[in-house]
């Protein structure tokens, strides 16, 4: 059985795993627009259509090139990316002060493949610090405002899917290990992956055809066959979609009714729905929190102001410089996460080992479920949690329905509700390496909404 690799890809000399050291005296930083007056996602959805000024608050850097530099299947496709994916000579700070002034010296593998396929890189969208959570993230808004056709987004615990829900677009998290992480500035090597946002599933499929596949520079990729992303057919009468009742246990009656109404679309399309019990569903978030924080604490150890980031002034010795600089490098949420990871790493390593054992058990349980149903249908958004999480507890409540896929490494797709629908969007999950068939399901459902067109 596949197990997520705990090792990061590439080399430790660069935050993105690329080959070259950071140039001395590098001072290039992303262009920053005026300070925004609200962080509410509803505020952004309402006002980003009112003027081009707000586009500057979606992008932290815009590309000086507007034409495609290559030819291929993605020629002319406007593609936005987050500043955790290295683009040669572009500022790449991953949304953190720890990497202020860092400029990438070579392209990430996904960026290189996009260029070769003819995609047009429109710029860098604002992201939360190291992609953790959605605070300060504008993921999906470039798609909503037609400033990009596709966006690459870091998915650590469901950020791509929740960003898609906020922007009312499609969001996809591929199976772990089919897309290279070389040139990605990540935080949790065994859980993170390159997510995709777009207005439709077809474009997501076309981009995955290009960026997925082996990469000799990413040593963490499993030696497995890449899924065939050619469009397949879905027969609803031969397809079973499972629903995990334990995943709905913390919903109010109104929220559950809304989810049941969303499931009605699947029934009307002819799919067979089946309840499949997974008593340990609530453990996914706990396992993610322990394992993810330990990996984050280890990954962030390189940001010491010696190799990357700003060096704090007034330090009397190296140790004081390290402590002061590290304290100033991270935001409150990430800093809390790193403290938690360090605790499990150095004080309660037995808890980390237990979490890894439970993770293996959850992987086995999910494999059994995959034998009983072709896909799973779950909510994506936890409506009882504020849009902007103020603590780690709020963050994990926010991602309660999405973190499971990062723990198991399986693909998930968020589909927004149809035009004029009052039901919530659906999160659909398939077995690991079942990406192509999951995308085919998404395309079938979107086509059914349009009368089969």
TrEMBL record:
Keyword Ligase belongs to the record: yes
Protein name in UniProt: Aspartyl/glutamyl-tRNA(Asn/Gln) amidotransferase subunit A
Cross-referenced Pfam families: Amidase (PF01425)
Family: Belongs to the amidase family.
Originating species: Syntrophus aciditrophicus (strain SB)
EC numbers, comma separated: 6.3.5.-
MF GO annotations: glutaminyl-tRNA synthase (glutamine-hydrolyzing) activity
One Gene Ontology cellular component annotation held by this UniProt entry: glutamyl-tRNA(Gln) amidotransferase complex
InterPro entries for this protein: Amidase, Amidase_dom, AS_sf
Amidase domain span: 68-137, 158-439
Keywords, in A-Z order: Ligase
PANTHER family attached to this UniProt entry: GLUTAMYL-TRNA(GLN) AMIDOTRANSFERASE SUBUNIT A, MITOCHONDRIAL, TRANSAMIDASE
GO biological processes: glutaminyl-tRNAGln biosynthesis via transamidation
């Amino acid at each position: 059985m596949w197990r997520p690799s705990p090792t990061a890809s590439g080399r430790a000399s660069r935050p993105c795993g690329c080959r070259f050291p950071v140039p001395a005296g590098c001072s290039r930083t992303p262009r920053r627009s005026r300070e925004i007056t609200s962080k509410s996602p509803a505020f952004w959805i309402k006002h980003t259509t009112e003027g081009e000024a707000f586009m500057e608050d979606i992008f932290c850097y815009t590309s000086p090139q507007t034409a495609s530099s290559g030819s291929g299947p993605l020629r002319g496709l406007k593609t936005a990316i987050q500043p955790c994916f290295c683009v040669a000579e572009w500022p790449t700070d991953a949304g953190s002060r720890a990497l202020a002034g860092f400029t990438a010296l070579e392209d990430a593998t996904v960026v290189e493949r996009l260029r070769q396929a003819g995609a047009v890189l429109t710029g860098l969208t604002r992201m939360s610090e190291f992609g953790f959570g959605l605070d300060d993230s504008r993921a999906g808004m470039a798609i909503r405002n037609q400033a990009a056709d596709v966006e690459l987004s870091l998915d650590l615990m469901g950020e791509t899917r929740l960003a898609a829900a906020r922007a009312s677009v499609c969001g996809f998290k591929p199976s772990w290990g089919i897309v290279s992480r070389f040139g990605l500035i990540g935080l949790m090597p065994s859980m993170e992956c390159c997510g995709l946002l777009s207005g439709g599933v077809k474009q997501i499929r076309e981009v995955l055809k290009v960026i997925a596949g082996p990469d000799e520079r990413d040593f963490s990729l499993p030696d497995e066959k890449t899924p065939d992303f050619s469009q397949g057919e879905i027969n609803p009468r031969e397809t079973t979609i499972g629903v995990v009742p334990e995943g709905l246990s913390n919903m109010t009656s109104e929220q559950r009714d809304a989810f049941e109404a969303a499931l009605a679309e699947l029934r009307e399309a002819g799919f067979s729905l089946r309840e499949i019990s997974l008593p340990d569903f609530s453990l996914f978030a706990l396992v993610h929190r322990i394992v993810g924080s330990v990996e984050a604490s280890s990954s962030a150890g390189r940001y010491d102001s010696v190799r990357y980031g700003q060096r704090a002034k007034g330090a009397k010795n190296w140790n004081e410089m390290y402590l002061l600089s590290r304290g100033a490098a991270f935001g409150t949420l990430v800093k809390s996460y790193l403290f938690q990871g360090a605790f499990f790493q150095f004080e309660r390593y037995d808890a980390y080992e237990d979490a890894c054992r439970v993770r293996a058990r959850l992987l086995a349980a999910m494999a059994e479920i995959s034998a009983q149903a072709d896909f799973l249908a779950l909510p994506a958004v936890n409506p009882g949690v504020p849009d902007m999480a103020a603590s780690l507890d709020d963050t994990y409540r926010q991602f309660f329905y999405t973190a499971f896929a990062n723990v198991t490494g399986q693909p998930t797709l968020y589909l927004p509700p149809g035009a004029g629908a009052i039901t919530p969007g659906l999160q659909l999950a398939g077995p690991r390496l079942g990406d192509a068939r999951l995308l085919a399901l998404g395309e079938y459902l979107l086509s059914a909404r349009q009368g089969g067109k």
